[in-house]
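Hi R.,

As promised on Friday, here is the backbone we talked about, encoded as structure tokens. Could you run it through your design pipeline when you get a chance and send me back a sequence?
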């Protein structure tokens, strides 16, 4: 990314290039701290909201230049870091996601096509959960495919945090639907 936008090919240049391209796409990166822009530094900090905003922009129609980001996401039960995950679920072949892990931290961000044909975006992070964190993230992501997620509208107060962003998670359901997951998919008008 740094070379493509004439920034030095260094950690600092990479960080400036990545943050600059996200800003150019209209994405806010508040709450993000990047040290090396590779995700390998323990000093990198990203929220689930920032990750989901990037995936959502790539999946949407307003930023077509971000669409190639989806092409490089591993396919559940088929390629990359997901080749041996989700193989025994209905999500195999329908879920694409980037994995991330450091000691005690796991992340999963991507897209899944639900049974009704809608593309849902998600970003999940677990901290200090050990191996159970990855298992929980996989289970939650796999649950999105069969849920069908009826159009239940959820709103998040401006001061609330999304799942994985820290304390809070106080999504408020605005009707009597039974689903507790919010797809946060702005193209369809949710959240």
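Update: got your reply. Pasting your designed sequence below so it's all in one thread:
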């Amino acid at each position: 990314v740094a070379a493509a936008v004439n920034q030095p090919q260094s950690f600092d240049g990479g960080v400036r290039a990545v943050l600059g391209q996200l800003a150019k796409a209209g994405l806010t990166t508040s709450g993000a701290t990047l040290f090396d822009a590779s995700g390998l530094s323990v000093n990198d900090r990203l929220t689930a909201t920032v990750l989901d905003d990037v995936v959502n922009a790539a999946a949407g129609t307003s930023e077509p230049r971000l669409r190639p980001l989806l092409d490089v996401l591993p396919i559940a039960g088929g390629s990359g870091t997901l080749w041996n995950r989700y193989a025994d679920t209905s999500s195999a072949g329908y879920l694409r996601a980037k994995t991330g892990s450091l000691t005690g931290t796991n992340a999963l961000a991507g897209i899944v096509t639900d049974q009704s044909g809608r593309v849902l975006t998600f970003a999940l992070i677990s901290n200090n959960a050990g191996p159970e964190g990855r298992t929980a993230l996989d289970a939650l992501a796999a649950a999105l495919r069969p849920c069908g997620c009826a159009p239940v509208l959820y709103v998040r107060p401006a001061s609330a945090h999304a799942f994985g962003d820290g304390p809070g998670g106080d999504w408020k359901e605005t009707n009597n639907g039974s689903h507790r997951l919010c797809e946060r998919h702005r193209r369809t008008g949710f959240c």
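One thing I noticed while checking it: Residues 152-191 have pLDDT under 50 and may be disordered.

Thanks again,
M.
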